[in-house]
User: What shape does this take?
Amino acid sequence: MQFDTRQCAAFMHVIDSGSFEAAAQTLHLTASAVSQRVRALEIQMGNTLLTRNRPCRPTPAGQRLLQHLRRVAELEQDLQSELTSVQTTPVSIAIAINADSLDSWVLPAVADFLIDEQILLDVCIDDQDHTHDLLESGMVLGCISAEAQAMRGCQAQSLGTMRYYAVASADYCARWFPQGLNRESARLAPVLTFNRKDKLQSQFLLKHFGLPENAFPRHYLPATAPYNRAIALGLGWGMMAELMLQDIDAAKQPVRIAPNLPVDVRLYWHTWKVQTPRLARLSQTLVGQARKIMRQD
Assistant: This one.
C-alpha cells in the first residue's frame, strides 16, 4: 500500500495538535483541506483513523498507522543524516516520562548526549501507570513506565526502583499527627495528590490503614514544584521521591511520617525492538545512567 505523504502529514498534525483547525494553521491550509486529506487516507485504509472530538484522538486503526508513520519518519531522519555525513538539523524524538523522573534524574542523565547528538526532546508527561498508553497509541517512540510487560514488537528494560516516602512539614505533623500517623488521623488529615491518575497516596492508605479511595480529604496539585511547596507550607502530606528529598537542604527537610513504610515503584524503559541508531543510542544512555542513579535492589 502506497501512502500519500500529504495525507499522512495531515493526519499526524491533527493528532499532534488535537484539532483540524490547529493542524491547518501549521500546514498553511484550510481546515476543510486538512479534513479532506484525512478523509481520503481513511478511505484508502478502509477505517476511521481518528475521533472528531476535541482533542482529536486516534482510533485503534489510527494508532497502528501512527506507530508506523512515526517510526518511518525517525528512520528517514537517521538515513538523511548518514547520507549527508554531517548532521546540521536537530532531530526530534517524542517520549513519555512520569513527572518525578523528569524532575529528578532524566535530564541530568541525558543532557550531554542530547547536546552531542543534536536531539530535541518532545516530552509527554503522564503518570508512570499511564505513559505506556502513549507508546501503544503511537504518540511517542519510547516511554518510562511502571509496566513491566512489553507489548508486541517492543522491548522493556529495567531502569531501577524509585523509592517514595510519606512526608509533611513539622507544623503539619504537630497539627494533624500529635499521636503519630494512625487510621483515624489519616482519615482526617488533608492529602496532597498530583492528579487524579496519581494513586501513590491512596494505595498507601488502603494498604496500611484500610482507608478506601475518597475516604480522606485531598488537594490536587499537578505540578512538581507547587506540590513540593505545598508540603513545605503545611497544606497536606504526600509522597515524595527519595531522589528529590536528597536535593532538599537538610534544614528544610520535611518529616518522614512513616519512615518504615516506603513505597517502591519499579520503572522500565519501553521502545520498539527495531529502533533507529540514534534512538538506540538514546536508549542505551538513558538505561545506563538510570541504573547508576536509581535503586537496583
In short: The longest strand covers residues 154-168. DSSP finds twelve helices and eleven strands in the chain. Residues 34 and 288 are 42 Å apart (CA to CA). Residues 60-84 form the longest helix (25 residues).
